Amino acid sequence: MPLIKATAIVLRSRKWGDADRIVTFYSKERGKIGGVARGARRPKSRFGAALEPFSLCRLNLFEKAGDSLLRVSHVDLVRSSQKLRESLSLIDSAARMVNVVAAITPDGDPDPLLFDTLEQGLASLHESEDPAFTALLFQIRLLGVTGFRPQTDHCAACGKAHFVGEPQFSPLAGGLVCLSCAAHQRVRCIALSRGSLSFLQQAIRLDPTVVTRLRASGQVRGEVEAAIEGYVTVVAGKRLPSANFLSVAVSS
Ligand SMILES: [Zn+2]
Fold first, then answer.
1. Residue 46 sits in which domain range?
2. Number of domains making up the chain
3. CA of 41 to the centre of ligand 1 (A)
4. pLDDT tens digit string along 12-39?
5. Domain end (from 59, 81, 103)
6. Ordered strands of the 175-177 beta sheet
């Protein structure tokens, strides 16, 4: 059985059998993969805390004939997720990041840019004073790198370039729509103020190294959060689970 080496982020981890865990990873080399970690729930498990959600680790895995799940044989922890499990707001934001990635990526389809985006997103949460806002910026960037960049230059439904009145964001069309297209959307559109539109356009276009300098509060933040929440729900094809789905325990 060939050994597989991968650098990966733990998306979720659930109990399996008496002492095992089934872990879903997003790996740089293989995209989203699932693995069984035998004995991971034993008190002196060799895996330690390396398989907690949001951890960055290096894995040794091997395939087992007739089983789609890989076997996790060795884990080196590269960046612990302990800090991200210290408060509910950090857990919620980190969970949002990994849930969106889990929901919009197929199994076994590697995308190194997506991996780097998730890795940087979780890293930036470590420094964040506003985790929910960091998660919002992450989602806007993730939509861009996965081919779902929100359309803000012309009507996402009919292509018309000039808008009259307040911009309307359609989660179903994936961007701004003109007033006549907005009237025909099956999912309610979100009216964006000019300030919200400007913020969204900057968040899409700015380089990730400077986008964290963006700020939004009050109405602008509320509108952009509603637009991105609606669009991500459409892209993911479902409402995303809450943090407790991940088996995350607050660590402090
Ligand atoms: Zn239109």
1. 1-81
2. 2
3. 54
4. 999 999 999 999 999 999 999 999 999 9
5. 81
6. 175-177, 168-170, 190-191
